[in-house]
Amino acid sequence: MKLHKVCYGILFFFYLASFVSANQGPGAAIFKDIKTHIEEAYYTDNKTELEAQLKRASALVNDKEFEWYAYYYMAFCHNHLSMLTLESDPEQARKHVDAAFENVDKAKEINEAAELYVLCISIMGKKITLGSSLMRMTRGLETLRYMDKAKELDPDMPGVVFEHALTEYHTPVKFGGGVDKAKALLKKNLKILETYEHQDPLYIDWHLREDNLAWLAYFEAETGNICEATEYYNEAAALRPDHAFLNSVVEKKLNEKKNELLRSKQEGEEDHG
């Protein structure tokens, strides 16, 4: 019995030592640095920096202790690079999509995590955009399967709720989706984000409060709620002034709707005049 206790004690020591090493050792420092650079490149749409971090991560796949993170980071970089090349170079975007799925699948072989299925949902969004209309239904079903798996693993993970919101937005109302459902989910996510913390410090920080606010601003602008859209926009900008999506797509949509409202008001005054 005493021998068993000693053996268990030794095993626990090595487990604890490996856990501390995975979060505090020199390897962890390298991956934390890559993570920080990926996040900065992601929010600023810095293609060159994403390519540089992709190269750094790919050089570390043989580090068995951090192999999972290498594949995860590579998949993340390929996913965002696909978004940045969707319009300018669709063929290159397809290659990035394929590489993203290849790397995320390798990561899943090591450890299935909700974060990976959230990433799959995002990658599939690009694949749907690049594909034919005939394949969109099939890929839409694949997206739902990823969503179900992510919810099973971590139902309140902000990334799960965020991608669910975007999926609802891109689903026609007659099929149960729509912008109102998307807005409700993002508002729910803002409450979740008040207390939620990643279980792993090496997870990439995306789907943050500013992302939810940016999309809420976009949705409110699209539905003509200019005051609400402006409030969300300003709050997001205060949190992340260099938010590329906010400063390009959302700002453009908001200005378009403001101009439409102004023209409508001027036309109404002319009619009454």
Automatic annotation (TrEMBL):
The keyword Signal applies. Keywords: Signal. It comes from the Bacteria. Residues 1-22 form the signal peptide. It comes from Desulfatibacillum aliphaticivorans. The lineage of its organism: Bacteria, Pseudomonadati, Thermodesulfobacteriota, Desulfobacteria, Desulfobacterales. This is TPR repeat-containing protein.
